[in-house]
Backbone:
């Protein structure tokens, strides 16, 4: 029985989302520990801002390197 492996792109995407969700939990915990109180629409705004910041940070952490070029496949 052979083991199935994910493609390189799927592995990178999985790590990107995993890091982003981890950062969301951490940032929301920090906001809660700081005692930032929100009411009504402000809680949605704070949630949206934390998601945007965390996905941006995850994009900085998980860099997509260019695919390696094989020596025999020169582009014409």
Residues:
């Amino acid at each position: 029985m052979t083991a199935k492996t994910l493609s390189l792109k799927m592995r990178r995407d999985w790590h990107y989302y995993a890091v982003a969700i981890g950062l969301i939990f951490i940032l929301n915990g920090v906001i809660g520990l700081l005692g930032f109180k929100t009411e009504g629409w402000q809680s949605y705004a704070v949630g949206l801002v934390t998601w945007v910041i965390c996905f941006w940070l995850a994009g900085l952490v998980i860099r997509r390197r260019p695919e390696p070029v094989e020596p025999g496949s020169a582009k014409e």
